[in-house]
Amino acid sequence: MPGTPRPPRCQRPTENADGQRWLLVLRGVRNVLGYAAGSYNGIHHIFPFTKTKAGDVYCAHLKSCFFHSITLLLTQATVAAVYVKVKPLLPQKSTAAADAEIKGKSECMDKH
Q1: 74 vs 6: which has the higher pLDDT
Q2: Residue 92: phi, psi to the nearest 5?
Q3: Contact between residue 40 and residue 65 where contact means Cβ atoms under 8 Å apart
Q4: What is the C-alpha to C-alpha distance for residues 81 and 22, in angstroms, rounded to an integer?
Q5: How far is CA 97 from the centre of its chain?
Q6: CA 68, 72, 73, 77: dihedral to nearest 10 degrees?
Q7: CA angle (70 as vertex; 58, 41 as ends), nearest 5
Q8: What is the Cα–Cα distance from 108 to 111, expressed in whole angstroms?
Q9: Which residues have C-beta within 8 Å of that of residue 67, sequence separation ≥ 6?
Q10: How far is Cα of residue 112 from the mean position of the Cα atoms in its chain?
Q11: How far is 39 from 27, CA to CA, in rounded Å?
């Protein structure tokens, strides 16, 4: 709507900005490693089961790159799941305090 003021922009937390920087670094490393893997002609020797009678060396090369990327993805996901600790955004209230707050709100609603 014209004339409606825009809400102020939220500042991103430092942790979010750090995470984005790491993502960009890892993307760059991935690009370099992907280029190196694609230019190496003997990568299908790492996974010898990819070369079959039906496919030639180029098909085996492509399948080997695919299996290599799956291995790296599973390794990275496992490392992230083990080492990254999630912090809650808000502190947890005790159940007694939460119950009292809910009871107080319901009594307030009954009065009105």
Answers
A1: 74
A2: -75, 135
A3: no
A4: 16
A5: 35
A6: 160
A7: 25
A8: 5
A9: 47, 50
A10: 47
A11: 18
Structure tokens at 12: 């991103």
Helices (H), 1-112: 14-39, 57-83, 95-111
- Which amino acid type is present at position 47? F
21-79 tens-digit pLDDT: 888 888 888 888 878 877 788 888 888 888 888 888 888 888 888 888 898 889 989 99
> d(Cα 64, Cα 77) in Å, to the nearest integer?
20
Tokens coding 35: 């280029």
**Is the separation of the CB atoms in 45 and 65 below 8 Å?**
no
Specify the DSSP class assigned to residue 46.
T
Q: Is 3 left (phi over 0), alpha (psi -120 to 50) or beta?
A: left
Two structure tokens written together for 91? 């502190």
Q: Token digits for 82?
A: 């083990």
Tokens 């694609």, residue located: 38
